[in-house]
Amino acid sequence: MATARTKEADPATQLRGLEAALRQGDLPRVALLRGEEQYFVERGLALLMAAAEQDGEELCRHDARDPEFRLSSLLDDLGGSSLFSAARCVVVRGADDIVKKVAEAGAGAKSSATIQSPFTTTALAFLASSSAGHLFVTARKLRADHAFSKAIKKASGLQFSARKLYDSPPPWDPDPRKSELAQWVRARAGELEVRLAADDAAFLAAATGNDLPAIDMALEKVRLAGSQGLAAVVGWQSGGSPWKVADDLLGGDLGRGVGGVESLFRGGFRSDRDGKTLMDRGGLVAMLLVALRGKARKALVASRAMARGKSLDEAADEAGVSRQKMARTALQSDLRLRTWNLWQAALADISELEFQSRSKGVVDAADFARLALRWQTDPTAAVTPRGRR
């Protein structure tokens, strides 16, 4: 009977496990870090290299992808001894090509006979020996049945796998805030001591397109910006900002709201960071819904707090609104638009549209235009239990 495969931990969990092991002084003699998500590969490799260097080993770095890479130098480092330290730590990046089998010497041109590559042969010899030192290797892909992978397993080495984080939520709970990427963004914000709401984490995840280094950079900017918040550091082209469209829609300005929706869905939006323009309808819908929910939720929490007799500042603190004067003034304007029950109705409208996007998958600019009509603050518009019509 076949043995059930153990489910592989996600890259973030593997990284935390590696950090914990290294804190206990458990540095593997050999490590293979592979996968498409180079962010986790490089973070894991940096931890291993720092631990080896702390032990006094000489770091010998090689990158097989570099045009100036010399295989002979790598083999010398791996097979020789250190002149300046007690041992060598050989680091090999991008080893995909140098682990491939090569044609057997002396075989005819039509022969398909192959042997292990010089690097694999030398690496296996190193692992079979009692030589001091460490070998850390990265690769995009390397099969588990490759001779090098088998040797690492036999030597109880580390095999670290870093796939891309899932940027779509699970089908049984299709909330963009529940995607693996959005949850990682929020956890990473905590590591960097940045306060980030679930809505903001989902927004940042969608805005960066699963670019983890860019997310790190944005979070660092938020940390340094302090009270300015996420919207101040993740810039969008004027007229195509989901934040601005959300402000206009919930602000009850029918003309600006409809115009902003039309501009967003026709022209997309362009990030000031990398100049990329998102035109995908699904992405636009998800990001605009996140922006709307975040704004409406804060207004609802604050308006309820003020209904209980709290001051504006106390209500803003409870809602998680920045202490920056501009943010407090904007909240005060929002609270003048609706009572708490009408903010609750607006949030219900947003939840209904989120459900529609998840269950039917058909939400477009017309749906947001209808919200603009429903939320307009024209005094002549009738107020119903579902908000203004």
Which percent bin holds the helix content? 40-55%
The Rg value, from CA coordinates, equals 28 Å
Strands of the widest sheet, in order across it, are 2-3-6-1-7
Mean pLDDT: 83
Beta-strand level of the residues, as a percent range? 5-15%
Q: How many separate domains?
A: 3
Please report the number of helical segments. 16
Supply the CATH class of the largest domain.
Mainly Alpha
Quick structural summary:
With 389 residues, the chain is of the alpha/beta class. The chain is 52% helix and 10% strand.
Task: Describe the 3D structure.
With 389 residues, the protein is of the alpha/beta class. The chain has 3 domains: 8-66 and 87-96 and 119-164, P-loop containing nucleotide triphosphate hydrolases (Rossmann fold); 165-234, Orthogonal Bundle (Helicase, Ruva Protein, domain 3); 237-388, Zinc Finger, Delta Prime, domain 3 (Up-down Bundle), CATH 1.20.272.10. The protein is 52% helix and 10% strand. The chain has 16 helices and 11 strands. The chain has helices spanning 11-23, 38-54, 71-79, 118-128, 147-154, 180-191, 198-208, 212-225, 230-233, 242-250, 254-267, 281-307, 312-319, 325-337, 340-359, 365-375; strands spanning 30-34, 58-63, 88-93, 102-103, 114-115, 134-139, 158-161, 269-270, 277-278, 383-384, 387-388. The chain has a 5-stranded parallel sheet, with helices on both faces. Residues 235-239 and 378-389 have low confidence and may be disordered.
